[in-house]
Specification:
552 residues, ten-stranded mixed beta sheet, alpha/beta, four-stranded antiparallel beta sheet, Rossmann fold
């Protein structure tokens, strides 16, 4: 299908977020696109130029370099290529760049020819690029979930970009295609949402980067005023290089970081100074390596990353087949109004399972609200409705709502199933329960008798004393790991999801002294996080003060 036939979205849904000038200059400095180099002999691609936020400073630097190196401006055609899907944006970008060229003395006709060659309407992801032909790829790729695209466009993107898996955002493809273009030692610099570093849909991209490229810099800017509009983008600047992995700069910028601090940051990164740099506007350090494979990338202050690397090297993960410890999530029904009830006479008694929701754990002890899950499952699968006349009648009365669920349409033969299968043995098992969204780990013990809702995660174990384990989870160790790996919500709220809980490292149970085990039990029962952290820190061989500081 010709690219021109693919119209992914309207301009209002294009996912555009315009970058402030000082942020653009910082990125250009970080990738080395500076006027003291012969930029006219190199090639830069801007994959989603918008109205020219990146292009104006790029062209200004290109012109300054051409004067220093004696290059004729008219010869700079091959030095720059920019794309945008929207004709309106291309028009604005061309006008902005044309003004720069004319202001620098170029005749309007010559300037127009350059601008026409540099900036084109087109789809960067589907354009037939020549791989390994570019020295720089820089920009702010658009943020659009694949499921929001026309199906034909999404299919074309997936075919072109193998890393765009699951419910990925299209910026994943912008990373892959940008990296494809880089010559040896060429650099890519994007400011982009950092969710792909810590989400499942970024796994293939992380694998690609770890196996073929170098992570040179990661600058987290969650609280920085980096864009022209206020957006919840959780941005980071990342610089990648087509070369062997070397040392990497890891930086966390504070809310006070701004234009007057950008040059200090780029100068510090360029210096390669491995000492911890903390100045109130940013904290940064240089690591000797970077993470490999598909695993999630942690984030945060450099000291936190160093501590996590140490603990991951010395201790086993929480979920472990050797201890029979498992992390999971409660049931999603697809229609809670139908499948959750307080009426015990609605269906047969053996179809009712006491259900716990996050609100039932708020005090630190279980306070069951009296809600039940209407359970269509038994140990072997879905129940036979012929044996349950009251359940059958209840489902018939709610038939439209039940059958209109996505899961019912996808599996019409099992139209009355919940989204998740109910593990009938889980109800009776002792388990630790953790609400999905909290400012700190909030483990609560269910000694058995309840089933968790999907806003609760659970931990079961064949060998752990769950109160001892609960003390470890209550401590700041859990916050350290989950805070580094999760996509944190506004206001600092953590997401205690299974993929992040599995990153927690725990000591060998056999090596925990009985006195420490009892102290963890007591701290868990009394909800004393400080005490739990002090005991846990000693078991991990680290400072409790450092643990608490780095877990924040």
């Amino acid at each position: 299908m010709p690219v021109a036939e693919l119209t992914p979205i309207s301009s209002s849904d294009y996912g555009e977020v315009f970058t402030r000038r000082w942020v653009v200059d910082l990125i250009l400095d970080m990738v080395g696109y500076t006027p003291d180099r012969d930029l006219g002999s190199m090639k830069l691609v801007e994959p989603s130029c918008g109205s020219g936020a990146f292009l104006v400073p790029i062209v200004e630097r290109l012109l300054s370099s051409s004067r220093s190196f004696g290059r004729d401006v008219g010869s700079l055609g091959p030095a720059l290529v920019a794309f945008d899907l929207l004709d309106a944006n291309v028009g604005l970008a061309r006008k902005a760049v044309l003004d720069v060229l004319v202001d620098h003395g170029l005749k309007p006709d010559d300037a127009y020819r350059l601008v026409q060659g540099w900036i084109s309407t087109g789809d960067f992801l589907l354009h037939p690029h020549q791989d390994r032909s570019v020295d720089f790829v820089v920009g702010n790729p658009p943020y659009i979930r694949l499921e929001n695209l026309d199906k034909r466009v999404g299919a074309a993107y997936r075919q072109q970009c193998s890393t765009m898996r699951g419910r990925a955002d299209i910026y994943v493809g912008f990373f892959e295609r940008g990296l494809d273009l880089l010559r040896p030692e060429g650099k890519l610099g994007y400011i982009c949402a950092d969710r792909w570093m810590r989400n499942q849909y970024g796994a293939d991209l992380r694998q690609l980067i770890g196996s073929k490229y170098s992570v040179d810099s990661v600058v987290s800017m969650h609280d920085v005023d980096a864009f022209e509009e206020s957006v919840s983008a959780y941005p980071a600047i990342i610089v990648l290089r087509n070369g062997q992995q070397g040392r990497a700069a890891v930086v966390e910028a504070t809310s006070t970081f701004g234009t007057e601090h950008a040059s200090d940051l780029s100068s510090w990164i360029a210096s390669g100074d491995s000492r911890l740099n903390e100045n109130g506007q940013f904290a940064g350090s240089i690591t000797d390596s970077w993470f490999r494979g598909r695993d999630l990338w942690p984030s945060g202050a450099p000291g936190r990353l160093a501590l996590i690397a140490d603990l991951e090297a010395r201790f086993a993960p929480l979920e472990d087949s050797l201890t029979g410890t498992r992390v999971g999530i409660g049931v999603a029904t697809g229609c809670d109004d139908v499948y959750i009830t307080e009426n015990v006479d609605m269906v047969e008694a053996d179809r009712l399972v006491p259900l716990l929701r996050a609100s039932d754990t708020a005090s630190g002890e279980l306070k069951w609200s009296g809600r039940y899950l209407i359970n269509p499952w038994n140990g072997s699968g879905l129940v036979d409705l012929r044996h349950y006349p009251r359940l059958t009648e209840y489902l018939r009365q709610n038939g439209e709502r039940v059958r209109n669920r996505h899961v019912a349409k996808r599996r019409p033969e099992a139209w009355y199933r919940t989204i998740d299968r109910v593990d009938t043995e889980l109800t009776g098992r002792p388990k630790l329960l953790l609400p999905d969204m909290k400012s700190a780990a909030h483990p609560v013990l269910d000694s058995g008798g309840y089933y968790p809702h999907h806003n609760l995660y659970f931990i079961t174990s064949d060998t752990w004393d769950l109160e001892v384990l609960g003390g470890l989870i209550l401590s700041d160790v859990a916050n350290l790991f989950v805070g580094a790996y999760c996509v944190r919500m506004r206001g600092g709220t953590y997401r205690f999801q299974a993929q992040y809980l599995r990153r927690i490292r725990v000591p060998d149970q056999a090596m925990i002294p009985s006195s420490a085990a009892q102290a963890l039990r007591d701290a868990f029962r009394s909800r004393d996080r400080v005490w739990a952290t002090e005991v846990a820190a000693e078991l991990y061989g680290i400072s409790a003060q450092d643990l608490t500081r780095l877990a924040k």
